[in-house]
Amino acid sequence: MTAPSDKTRVLTGITTTGTPHLGNYVGAIKPAIAASQDPSVQSYYFLADLHALIKCPDPRRVQESRLEIAATWLALGLDTDNAIFYRQSDVPEIPELTWMLSCVCAKGLMNRAHAYKAAVAENEAAGNQDPDKGITMGLFGYPVLMAADILMFNAHKVPVGRDQIQHIEMARDIGGRFNHLYKGQYFTQPEAVVDEQVEVLGGLDGRKMSKSYDNTIPLFASEKKLQKLVRKIKTNSLEPGEPKDPASCTLFQIFSAFATADETEAMRGEYANGIGWGEAKNRVFELLNEQLREPRERYQGLMEDPGHIEQVLLQGAERARAEAAPFMDRLRQAAGLGRFV
Ligand code: TRP
């Protein structure tokens, strides 16, 4: 048996503003659930619902998204005895640590954050007098909250998309600064893990499948809806009988993300033989539907039992806090906020 302290700690957060789609599944959820089954790893997966407030001031959407995302991970078989699965907002030590880190984090570091710079650039492009127009402290300090998420559990590895690498570097920077200032090895230096193998799935219009492009296929859309959406995937005007190129084809990419290697090769042959788009879409729908049917049923069952999900998440938060609370005590002490006696 490996003691928990010997295990590699892998941590990642999911911002709760959307409904999980096929791209999320292939790019993040599936590899995360697989990784959590490795006995040499302790995984921490959480709903980044405090982060959600930054982007989404719609309480109904945030609430719904939290439930949908939790139900999705559970329906897909996340083993919550192994992985610590919790809501960020159930761990009050995280916002507390965020404040402590804010007090050692250079403002200039935050000025250089991509998301903030993009918002400023947008204001400038729009000719706004104030470059900070509409930018909240939440957006500006986003990387500090994310650093607290990571440093709270001394994560070694943080699986993320490319766009998040800078945030992990900032977490290293901020953690290192705290260690230096308070003369101790409080925080481990986390490492971003960007899986080059994992595919970025195309969406209905061929661009990256993403909520911001409104081109997604929800993972647990009903059978009918799934079929309708698959039919909407953009193809070209080649007729049945004309050979088609799988390399540039979103439909083929989606197929191969779910198919076995043999099935993918067979489909490649069909493309060369000029399979019609209607037929190709039927095959994609059938493959997806076959694989998603069972988890979809589990998902629907879970969505009808929010009390169960609540229980699971509260248990996860309890485990998270069993680590976070004593660590936070140590950090308070380091900063001069310890008890008098
Ligand atoms: N910012 C991440 C994203 O948008 C979500 C996130 C929040 C996260 N806290 C995290 C990811 C901590 C990894 C570790 O994808």
From TrEMBL:
Residue sites binding L-tryptophan per the record: D149
List where the motif 'HIGH' region lies. Answer: 16-24
What processes in GO biological process is this protein linked to?
tryptophanyl-tRNA aminoacylation
Annotated compartments: Cytoplasm
**Under the cellular component aspect of Gene Ontology, which terms does the record hold?**
cytosol
Please name the InterPro entries in this protein's record: aa-tRNA-synth_Ic (IPR002305), Rossmann-like_a/b/a_fold (IPR014729), Trp-tRNA-ligase (IPR002306), Trp-tRNA-ligase_bac-type (IPR024109), Trp-tRNA_synthetase (IPR050203)
Keywords (alphabetical) are: Aminoacyl-tRNA synthetase, ATP-binding, Cytoplasm, Ligase, Nucleotide-binding, Protein biosynthesis
Give one GO term, molecular function aspect.
tryptophan-tRNA ligase activity
SUPFAM superfamilies, per this entry?
Answer: Nucleotidylyl transferase
What's its EC? Answer: 6.1.1.2
Please list the residues that bind ATP. T15, T16, T17, G23, N24, G161, R162, D163, L201, K208, M209, S210, K211, S212
Q: Motif span ('KMSKS' region)?
A: 208-212
Q: Which reaction does it catalyse?
A: tRNA(Trp) + L-tryptophan + ATP = L-tryptophyl-tRNA(Trp) + AMP + diphosphate + H(+)
PANTHER family in the record, alphabetically? Answer: TRYPTOPHAN--TRNA LIGASE, MITOCHONDRIAL
Q: Which family does it belong to?
A: Belongs to the class-I aminoacyl-tRNA synthetase family.
Function of the molecule: Catalyzes the attachment of tryptophan to tRNA(Trp).
This protein's assembly is summarised as: Homodimer.
Give the protein's recorded name: Tryptophan--tRNA ligase
